[in-house]
C-alpha cells in the first residue's frame, strides 16, 4: 500500500500533531463558550449532541483558519494553529499493509 504523504522527520510529525491538536482545542473551547448561552446549552445538554457540536465547531474553525492562514501574521497563526510553519512531507512512501507484514512467531 502506498500513502501519498508522510512526514519525513520527528520534527515534522510533531508539527503535524500540533497543527491538528491546537485547532481541536480551540473547537472545544469555542463550543464550551457557546454552550454558556441558554439556547445552545439546551441543545448540547445531551452527550451525543455535545460530541456532535464539538466536532462541527472544530471542523468549521479548522476550515476557516486554514482558509485565512496565508493572510494571517505569524504570531496569530501560532496562536490559532500552534505553529506557523508547515511540516514537510515525502511523497509515495510505501507502508506495509496488514496482510504484508512479516509473520514473527
Mind sketching the topology for me?
Elements (H helix, E strand, L loop, with lengths): L1 E6 L2 H25 L3 H7 L2 H22 L5 H8 L7 E6 L11
Antiparallel strand pairs: 1-2
Helix pairs in contact: 1-3
Mean pLDDT over all positions: 81
Count the helices. How many? 4
**What gap, in angstroms, lies between the N and C termini?**
24 Å
Strand content: 5-15%
Query: Sheet bearing the most strands, described?
Result: 2 strands, antiparallel
Which class of secondary structure composition applies to the elements? mainly alpha
What does this structure look like?
The protein is mainly α. The protein has one domain (2-100). The protein contains 4 helices and 2 strands, in the order βααααβ. A two-stranded antiparallel ribbon has the order 1-2. Helix 1 crosses helix 3 (47-68). The radius of gyration is 18 Å and the shape is elongated. It starts with a strand and ends in an 11-residue tail after the last strand. The mean pLDDT is 81.
Summarize the structure.
The chain is mostly helical and 105 residues long. The chain has four helices and two strands.
Keywords:
105 residues; 2 strands; mainly alpha
